[in-house]
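Onboarding guide, step 5: your first structure request.
Type a short instruction followed by the sequence, for example:

Predict the 3D structure of this protein.
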Amino acid sequence: MKFVIQKYIENLTEEELEEFALKEGIKLLDEEKKVLYVYIKNYWETLLEKDSTFIFEKLKEKLQPKTYEKVIELYNKYKKKN
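The system replies with structure tokens like these:
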């Protein structure tokens, strides 16, 4: 399963991230899209397998409160499925 996720992340574009966010009811600012994209690309393994508290602390500083809350909600939802 990890290999599938890795390949998906490698091919993920900012536009796909934005489309997913819109489907989930999130309208990302351009800067938020860039931040989330960089964090997903660079920290996906940590988000998937390890303690990701420090990542979310950094994201909280860089995202609007409403966006941050939705990101946490979606993370918890999809983490349970894993």
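Each response can be followed by summary notes, for example: The longest helix spans residues 30-49.
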